[in-house]
Structures are given as structure tokens and as C-alpha cells.
């Protein structure tokens, strides 16, 4: 750390910012509540264990004090839940148990926390600032200049270059600025983007002692928060896929868990394309977070065809078919592959080729940064 004075710089030892007991515990709690899929009691149990080991509390501030402050600040709420919801009976209040749950305020804060962790602090920007190859009215400068035309916004005029033209064209002695001296800054046309994020919640997302679902969940929350704050005219819809596929809301993300499911990639892609067909935006895309192994199809009679042994060629062919269909309706698929098995990576390569999309073999550590970078780069409007 440096302090400027009249004689130059003076270096002093770094001092960590002061945190209150609540702030210190709250930072840890936000991580724990994400890992426990919104289970308040489990998160507090973990916090108690951490407190025993690292002495996070003080004699004047206990875990119970922290819980009460969470309630008073509106981050959690307490309600009575009948012990038997289907048969409450006359003495429901006596048998009910108190359940603590997260408020909408806390859910939003968790998403912001994920955004800050993965993408850094982003400020709210103007709407629709997706770069395209088309020159037009927008917020992203192209670096080019052109002659002023009637109807151009005054704010787009390059004052410095226009003054230079006036001096060159009219001389320095008697300064005169004419319309033909004016030049304006070109900018990229602002476009909108509709995105569907697919999250694999099959059992393999937590196999082999590796928690793959929590990083995927964090990325989804961060992406939702980024689009809401930075690109408010864009749309993001989220779906999860296991044996079947179904949409979820942003508010559901902190509570997302894997299940005893196989991986029905075809069902997820089919639902994603249905969602995007209803969007009027020209720019549409699918982001898919998966460990890459499709193992399930739903048959016409409603039964399931499952095969977890290697890659089933019938299932794989159906995945390729869906990839080609998405390409035909101009929907690129970007796959974020979080497993490193060579045969699965080969499947993703062929799947990506069928769609003419993109694939990133990120592992878990770089997942957030990869998705953010690709979202920023995918805004070039396809001109037909």
C-alpha cells in the first residue's frame, strides 16, 4: 500500500480491511448455502464446525447472534411447517416445526456473490450492447470516422477531428466550422441475444468425489445476474436435464441438486430449441454444461432407453441429429465439457462439428471465465 505526500511515496505494511463478526461469517455462509443447495440447517451445521476449528466467533458474538442478525436484515425467514402436511389435524400448531428459509433478497445476493467471484465486479450498462458486424447506432465504437449526415446524433460527432478539418479547410486565421467539416464516430449496431443455459443434473455430476454441480450452479447464477444487470434486453432461460428435461427459474438455482438420473441430452436440446423458437431475436444460442456422456432416450411409448456402458451408438446418433437440426434453424450450441475422458471429448468434437458450434474443455476451475468470454464474443449478428 502506498500513500502519496509532498515528497513522493511512503510504503506501509498492508492492513486487511476491518470486518465485523457478521461480515466475516456472512462471507462464509454465502459459500456454504450454495454448496448445501439452500439448506439453511446444513449450512449452519457446517458453519458451527468451521467455528470450532478456526474460532470465527467471539465471546460477544455467537452463531445464534449471527442467525438472529440474518433474520433482522431480511436474509432469511422463519415459518411454521406442519409435521404432516397431508394431515395437519387439530393440533397442527403444536406439532409444527420451525423452518428457516432464504428470502428473495438473499437469493439475489447469492447470485451477485457468484457474479463477483467468477466475472469480477460489473457495473450496470446500457441496453442491447452486443457487437455486430453492422455499422449503426450503438454504444461500441468501431474506431472509424465518416462524414456527418442529417439525422446523426450530436453526441456522435468527433469534436477534435471536426475542429481539425475546419482548420485545414478554412485556415487558422478566421476560424469557421461548416457542416462538411463535421465527422462522426462509427459504432457497432446494438443487437439482442436470447440464450438457453442447459445444466446436466445426472448422477455423474457428483461421481468420483468430484462436485461438478456446484461450479455449474454458480456459473448459472452469475450468468443470470450478469444478463439482468448488464444486458437487460437480452433473455436467459435455464433448463436442467436428467432422464427428462424441464425449465427452472433463476430463483430455483441456489436449491439445484443432482438426482439419480441418467443423461438425456436429446430431451434437453429439444426443449432448448422449443424455448428459442418462441423468441423474436435473431441472435439465439444454447450453452450446455455437461460431463459429456449421453446415456438415455425417452421413447414414443413413454418408456426410457438407458445405457451407461460406454457410448451407445443409437443415443449418440440422436444427439448428432439434434445438433444438425439446431444448425438448420441457426441456433449454435456451445458445449462446456467438464470431464476429461478422451472418448467423451471425441464425442463432443463430433457433436460440435454436426452443429458447427463450439466446445470448451474447461474442467471446473476455468468454467466461469470461459462462459463469460464466450457470451461476450457471441454477439455478432448473423447477416443473411
CATH homologous superfamily label of the largest domain: von Willebrand factor, type A domain
CATH fold label of the largest domain? Rossmann fold
The residue fraction in helices comes out at 25-40%
The first-to-last residue Cα distance is 54 Å
The rough form would be described as globular
Largest sheet report? 6 strands, mixed
One letter per element, helices H and strands E, the order comes to EEHHHEHEHEEHEEHEEHEEEHEHEH
Helix and strand content put the structural class at alpha/beta
Contiguous low-pLDDT stretches (5 residues minimum) are 121-139, 380-384
Strand content: 15-25%
CATH architecture call of the largest domain: 3-Layer(aba) Sandwich
Number of domains: 3
Question: What labels would you give this structure?
Answer:
globular; single chain; 6-stranded mixed β-sheet; alpha/beta; 11 helices; 3-stranded antiparallel β-sheet; disordered C terminus; 38% helix; 20% strand; Rossmann fold; 384 residues
Amino acid at each position: 500500500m502506498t500513500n502519496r505526500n509532498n515528497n513522493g511515496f511512503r510504503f506501509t505494511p498492508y492492513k486487511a480491511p476491518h470486518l465485523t463478526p457478521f461480515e466475516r461469517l456472512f462471507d462464509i455462509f454465502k459459500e456454504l448455502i450454495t454448496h448445501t443447495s439452500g439448506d439453511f440447517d446444513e449450512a449452519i451445521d457446517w458453519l458451527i464446525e468451521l467455528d470450532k476449528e478456526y474460532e470465527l466467533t467471539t465471546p460477544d458474538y455467537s452463531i445464534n447472534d449471527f442467525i438472529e442478525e440474518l433474520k433482522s436484515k431480511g436474509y432469511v425467514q422463519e415459518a411454521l411447517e406442519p409435521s404432516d402436511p397431508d394431515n395437519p389435524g387439530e393440533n397442527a400448531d403444536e406439532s409444527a416445526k420451525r423452518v428457516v428459509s432464504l428470502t428473495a433478497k438473499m437469493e439475489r445476493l447469492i447470485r451477485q456473490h457468484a457474479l463477483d467471484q467468477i466475472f469480477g465486479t460489473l457495473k450496470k450498462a446500457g441496453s442491447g450492447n452486443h457487437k455486430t458486424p453492422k455499422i449503426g447506432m450503438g454504444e461500441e465504437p468501431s474506431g472509424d470516422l465518416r462524414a456527418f449526415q442529417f439525422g446523426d446524433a450530436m453526441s456522435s460527432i468527433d469534436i477534435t477531428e471536426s475542429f481539425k478539418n475546419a482548420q485545414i479547410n478554412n485556415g487558422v486565421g478566421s476560424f469557421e466550422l461548416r457542416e462538411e467539416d463535421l465527422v462522426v464516430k462509427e459504432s457497432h449496431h446494438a443487437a439482442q441475444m436470447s440464450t438457453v443455459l442447459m445444466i446436466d443434473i445426472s448422477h455423474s455430476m457428483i461421481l468420483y468425489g468430484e462436485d461438478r454441480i456446484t461450479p455449474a450452479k454458480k456459473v448459472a447464477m452469475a450468468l443470470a445476474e450478469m444478463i439482468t444487470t448488464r444486458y437487460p434486453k437480452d433473455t436467459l432461460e435455464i433448463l436442467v436435464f436428467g432422464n427428462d428435461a424441464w425449465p427452472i427459474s433463476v430463483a430455483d438455482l441456489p436449491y439445484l441438486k443432482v438426482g439419480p438420473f441418467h443423461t438425456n441430452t436429446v430431451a434437453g436440446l429439444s426443449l432448448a430449441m422449443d424455448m428459442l423458437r418462441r423468441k423474436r431475436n435473431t441472435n439465439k444460442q444454447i450453452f450446455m454444461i455437461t460431463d459429456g456422456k449421453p446415456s438415455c432416450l425417452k421413447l414414443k411409448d413413454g418408456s426410457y432407453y438407458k445405457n451407461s456402458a460406454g457410448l451407445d451408438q443409437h443415443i449418440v446418433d440422436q444427439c448428432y441429429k439434434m445438433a444438425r437440426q439446431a444448425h438448420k434453424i441457426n441456433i449454435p450450441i456451445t458445449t462446456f465439457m467438464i470431464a476429461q475422458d478422451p472418448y467423451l471429448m471425441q464425442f463432443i468434437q463430433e457433436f460440435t462439428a454436426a452443429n458447427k458450434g463450439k466446445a470448451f474443455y474447461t474442467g471446473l476451475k476455468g468454467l466461469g471465465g470461459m462462459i463469460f468470454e464466450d457470451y461476450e464474443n457471441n454477439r455478432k449478428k448473423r447477416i443473411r
